[in-house]
Fold this protein.
Amino acid sequence: MRSLEIPGQEIHIEIDNPIPRRKKRNTNLADAEPIVLMSVLSSLHAGYFRISLSLCSQALLWKIMVHLHSEIPSAAFHFLWYLALVTQVSLCFMYAFKCVFFFDLVKEEFVHYIGVNYLYAPSISCLLLLQSAPMIKPHSVLYQTLFWIFTVPILTLDTKLYGQWFTTEKRFLSIMANPASQISVIANLVAARGASEMGWKECALCFFSLGMVHYLVIFVTLYQRLPGGNNFPTTLRPVFFLFFAAPATASLAWNSISGTFDILAKMLFFLSLFIFISLVCRPNLVKKSIKRFNVAWWAYSFPITFLALDSVQYAQEVKDHFASGLMFIFSSMSVLIFLGVMLLTAANSKRLLRRDPVLWSATAPKDK
Amino acid sequence: MEEKTLNYVIQVEEELPTLLRRVTTEEMVGFDNYNENNLLFTHPISRFHPSHASTPTSNGQEVSRSSIESMEDHHNYNESHDKETLPWTHQRKPSISMPTSPNILMISDPTTSLSSDNNISGSTGKSVKFLSQPMAKVSSLYIETGNDEHDHDRRRHDNHHHQQHHQSGQFQNQNPAMHKLKDNRYNSFKTWSGKLERQFTRKPASVEPEAPNRDKQNMNTNEAMPVDRYYDALEGPELETLRPQEEIVLPNDKKWPFLLRYPISTFGMCLGVSSQAIMWKTLATAEPTKFLHVPLWINMGLWFISVALILTIAAIYLLKIILYFEAVRREYYHPIRINFFFAPFISLLFLALGVPPSIMTDLPQFLWYLLMFPFICLELKIYGQWMSGGQRRLSRVANPTNHLSVVGNFVGALLGASMGLREGPIFFYAVGMAHYLVLFVTLYQRLPTNETLPKELHPVFFLFVAAPSVASMAWAKITGSFDYGSKVCYFIAIFLYFSLAVRINFFRGIKFSLSWWAYTFPMTGAAIATIRYATVVKSSMTQFMCVILCAIATLVVFALLVTTIIHAFVLRELFPNDLAIAISNRPRPKQNSQHRWLDQLRNVSSENIENYLKFTDSNSSQSNDLEAANGKTQESDSA
């Protein structure tokens, strides 16, 4: 059955000549041979949406920076935003094609305990794009419609995942908890921010509390590192950066809800800062995963971007040198890492498309 | 009886190195000299059977030597003694055939340490094994040999089995080097073990052979002991009691050097006294207790006492770090004691909080940064360990003493806020709150993977009260008023306090230790929080509670002081041997193997002995040589 299928697929791959272009800029995929398309589609998984996440969060950062410091040319921001838009649209289309042609692969991803979290990623990227859009005003109808379109998948996934944590025996939180679970929390918090931008405070508060309550549970569970939880693959160590992305996003959301960077937002920002320093002081944690390039490396970029966003808001509230210093450090770090990962992706574009056996893939056993 | 039957010599040596050869020849003669050995053994001081001198036995074998060295034996002494004291060496070898005294365990293991009774030393045929085995195996030999075990069983001295790896001790009564005995045994714990002694060595040549062993010593000391070792070897709410059948690497029948007996939990005393100073200051200056007319000199007196105490204790501990770094390292890796490393810094924070108003009213802000800097470094390390998993993850090591790691954040926030700082206190409050939440949930869960929570109540449970009470005060200072957040924390603290206080009966009958001082500061903290609460909620009930809680805190501290004085001067056991840091790094032998060996020996007949002797040289690359030998013996029996 399955064992019979696999060789079949592999033969496919051996015959092709993968086109060495960065998938992101791959606008003429339709021109390529169908076989190449198939192989590309089969190796695509939701983790690739990290790329669009990083791009969109960068766009948001640049938007806010441009808003605050008018000396930064807004042309760069516009370019970035359009780039992010294009990437997101193409990735979405490709993933849609994958759902059509390789539905069982998508189903496997859905069932995998790490992979399912990345199904939030397209919605998060779209929401971020929406929030950073230069031309759409927050109170317009277009914004509201798009907001709901992007938030409905988040809500459905929430109901499915969070309900499973304490009802479905095979998927109890103590077994399924892993650092990637924080993406669901981030999704709720980004939705909260979007809602409050629109002026819908109650809706924003609802998303915020949903995110925070589950964040509490995940935080405690992950800190305990219960034995018996699945082991997290080493190549996915960059995902550890999500530990400080979640409180940073919470801080941003609360800042947006309450209007000022008040004490709760500050506390969340400081928590995020502390965890960041703690992770950075432990290079051993990520050493193993740095050996080979992997699409998981994009997971380094967007948490730092969220932290940078947060530090920008913090510096706005607390106008002293320390805060401005933090803002400068994190923003530059974020831009540098983003550019670095982008260059590395361009350099390793072949590897990007190859199905990575180490990284969980849809056909890999769940208990990896 | 049994003892007699067990007194078979199982020794076979065929060593090689020159020194050994000499010995072996004499060994033959040695059988005759057994009685002499006995005499020596029965010498009250002769705890160390010369045959324990590992040097002669394995002598040639660096492997065996190094195995002995693995405990950082003072090798040169052995060798020097060997060379000098031939008669001793060959006595060592005695693979004593028949014990004449019940004390002597005939099974001398050249590499083993003495039992607490010290009389036994057996050299087993294992020495042969030494030849072929790598060091690790050889050292496992120490543990896995059933010899020591049933030897100890026979002894029934105490439940603790020691392995004396430091053979040099043997010479104690026999050599003029007796005065150096203590040094040798504690060498593994000294920072510069042996370097000073080597200078006094009579035989400069003996330094040479030591060189290869030195590396092995370093190897062992550089490895961190895995946390599982601590859990396996120790028990009790503070992980201080040695489990039965565990061996320690230092002798337990002697009083160790003072510094080795000086645990880090002594800093708990600073915590207790300095928090009292803060309480009396608050009592004197706060609104609700003005009616008591408490004089300020109490605070001043207590403050100066705590300053003196901190300086003394810190100085002594600094000496310990300098002189016995290995012991400090072992304390650092101890899952409970690590939390006490926060205690000195928390005490300094308390000192800053309790400074008498007449001395200084406004502390400079850089002082806060200075005090919190070591805190943040230590925190990054410890919390990172919790999060990154591995053997020290929180689900494994969570215990009530972890509250000490967390409460420091709140104390720092309180101090910073009272100094007028704004952002820094919020930072520490946030970090402390997040980690407190995780710790609280984990402790409440009483996870099955977590063994350290005591089944019976112990004063350490009072630490539960510490974090919420200090958090409430810190939040009040940060926000400027004792609002809802502070009140919630305060009520949690009071609830925990009362639920523990009504179970006071369960606290009886627990062995006193200096760390109990650390458990008094939560009571003091709760009392101070009550005073702050009473400042906001003015009623006679709250005032009454203030007085009661302060009285309880003072009484407890006073009682503890009396107990400490009694233990220090009357019972003279304020600093007992700190067994928790002396556990050996090897797993203890399995029960079944011991019993097998025991049974084997019970049934031993002369044929068996011969078989054993025959088969001891056959070799095995197995780790458990004794078992292999037994197995073969059994085979031969059955055959």
Notes: The longest strand of chain B covers residues 161-162.
